[in-house]
Design goal:
Layout (H helix, E strand, L loop, with lengths): L2 H6 L14 H10 L6 H7 L4 E12 L2 E12 L3 E5 L6 H9 L3 E9 L6 E2 L5 H8 L1 E4 L11 H8 L6 H14 L1 H4 L11 H13 L5 E5 L7 H16 L4 E5 L3 H7 L2 E6 L2 E7 H6 L1 H8 L2
Parallel strand pairs: 3-8, 3-9, 6-7, 7-8
Antiparallel strand pairs: 1-2, 1-4, 4-5, 9-10
Helix pairs in contact: 6-7, 6-9, 9-10
Length: 290
């Protein structure tokens, strides 16, 4: 890499330093700035009324443990953004909540008060049907050969009758007229922003309470990134969705989220309000451009 190229690389992926920082070095520096915090402090960030709760969760793939005793709290109608270097275990948290990997120990609980439901051992379909948890995958999860309308119907696969899925799809079209205008078009002709909107909308067909959102900005042009975050903001603040997000664009994610966690090596290194992490100089140097 030329000296000129090095100067253009700013921090971890977007940074604020004059040299390239390797992933290993980011991991080392993140571990070095890790803070001590209690479950009570995590509860306070969730307004002492957590709706999504992870207690001492150890999870991974096959026999490999990726998460090492994670505690996580986010309140109803709040948003939480996970940031950190590649390999920190961010997406593994989402996979664990939804049931895509192995849980070795610990618990995942959804709900408040007497309505709390332990979902640790439920399948993804059971988590969607019983606990209202929906997973919005990274890019390219739509069915390109199907129409926009058919993709939405697929989102209602757990509905008892096909007519119920179609009715839910119509509500989505009412909310997002730009999708309605494309309803008969094959999904493969959509723009990047339209595809991401379709991915989000498909998850809404089951009217979930909790949205797990994996890298919403990945592969999008800036104007579409803003559109996606406006949609997520509407879903949280106007429709009362609880959002747990992984976002590589740390600045954008923390600007959006009520709560931010910095992860490293399968553990939580720093936890705080999203706005506080934005002002944290150590986090800024590693993830926000200095």
């Amino acid at each position: 890499m030329s000296e000129q190229s090095k100067e253009r690389v700013r921090g971890y992926g977007a940074g604020g330093v004059d040299t390239v920082i390797s992933v290993d070095e980011v991991v080392r520096q993140t571990a070095a700035i890790a803070e001590e915090f209690s479950v009570e402090e995590l509860d306070a960030l969730a307004n002492n009324a957590p709706y999504v709760t992870l207690d001492n969760l150890v999870a991974g793939y096959g026999q490999m443990r990726i998460l090492h005793g994670i505690n996580l709290r986010v309140g109803r109608k709040q948003s939480l953004c996970l940031i950190g270097p590649n390999g920190a275990g961010k997406s593994t948290v989402l996979h664990a909540i939804f049931g895509f990997n192995n849980i070795f120990s610990g618990n995942i609980v959804i709900g408040e008060g007497n309505a709390r439901l332990d979902v640790t051992s439920l399948t993804p379909s059971e988590k969607l049907a019983k606990a209202g948890i929906a997973y919005i995958l990274q890019d390219k999860s739509i069915f390109p050969g199907m129409t926009v309308e058919e993709n939405l119907w697929m989102g209602g696969f757990l509905k008892k009758q096909p007519a119920e899925a179609k009715e839910a799809a119509e509500k989505v079209f009412e909310k997002y007229p730009q999708l309605a205008a494309r309803r008969r078009h094959q999904a493969k002709v959509l723009s990047g922003g339209e595809r991401r909107l379709l991915e989000i909308s498909r998850a809404l067909v089951m009217n979930p309470d909790v949205l797990l959102v994996d890298e919403p900005s990945i592969g999008l042009e800036p104007k579409f990134i803003d559109m996606v975050f406006e949609i997520l903001n509407d879903l949280q603040h106007n429709e009362g969705k609880t959002i747990v997000m992984v976002e590589q664009n740390a600045k954008k994610g923390l600007e959006f989220a009520d709560i931010g966690y910095v992860m490293v090596s399968g553990k939580i290194a720093i936890a705080g309000k999203g706005s506080d992490l934005l002002e944290n100089p150590k986090v800024g140097e590693l993830f926000l451009g200095g």
